[in-house]
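General statements about sequence and structure are easier to judge against a single worked case. For one protein, we set the task of working out the structure tokens from the amino acid sequence alone. This step matters because it turns folding into a mapping between discrete strings. The amino acid sequence and the backbone structure tokens for this protein are reproduced below.
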Amino acid sequence: MSDKNVQRLPAEELYQTELDALMSAETESIPTGWRMSPRSVLTYLTGNTKVKGVEITPKYMGNKRLVEIAIATLVTDRALLLIGEPGTAKSWLSEHLAAAVNGDSTKVVQGTAGTTEEHIRYSWNYAMLIAKGPCPEAMVKSPVYRAMETGSIARVEEISRCASEVQDALISILSEKRLSVPELGLEVPAAKGFSVIATANTRDKGVNDMSAALKRRFNIVVLPTPSDMETELDIVRTRVVQLSAGLDLNARQPGEDTVEKVVTIFRELRAGATLDGKQKLKTTSGVLSTAEAISLLANSMALAGSFGDGRISDGDLAAALQGAVVKDEEHDKVTWKEYLENVMKKRGHEWLPLYRACRELNG
């Protein structure tokens, strides 16, 4: 299948030109199993520079020291756990770390209530198992197993959504760096370079809380929400451009004032206060994360491109805001109405068209 027909390319393919430039310009020592030095991985992630004439775009905008800690963890024999609120770029950072270190971010276990121990270890092709009995050809290796064999990184997304027995399957692997296959009498050792990057959502803390034994196997890095307005604006602007480039939205990029309005609304409802701190507000049941702001603007572009003139209108933005803010009809509808009447309506003529469009949709 042509790359043009793929909905979402992995990071190592999407940013192959940047990765190739960094590898060709490498001058520092490279850890076993890695494709570039830790400093080059940092350059790839934080960007805002040119290497051999290639613009390295920022993949993570935030505390640079946290990124350095994450990279340094992968140089050691400890696994990395990225924790944060929804939309704090945990999965995004995990994917790009694996892409830069190994050139392969696709060894992924997606944590859900349906994830089993086999997804962490291995399973069997039962037709072949019946025909030939236990043999290497009948084995279906998990992403973690394949990462151990190749000395690369496996990713475990939303680890706290996995049942405790699934989480516990990781303990011996991370402790002993070996995986036992009793059916074949095998002990599979991890090749140098093997590591695990897991992510956990602080909102899901009580779903399947990680045991102390498992937490001890990880170096934990907490990714915060953007600390200031300007940082969040930069993240949203950059990611909307990147996201829309792979979609046929047929719309113009949102203007600066549109992005600023969305980020302002999200930050205020998230914090429960206006930006100047003078007015207390009710918060919504949803998180209203930076990632959701990015999706909201992409959705507004889709509306404008499909049913408008390609320029995001106040009606397009209001429709997207309604879907993002009002997740719980009973609670959020009232919260949103109070915000419209007590905050947005009083912000002057620049906000009035959006206020009217939002009020009409919210009833």
User: Anything to note?
Assistant: The chain has two domains: 3-223, 229-362. The longest strand covers residues 195-201. The chain has a mean pLDDT of 92. The radius of gyration is 23 Å.
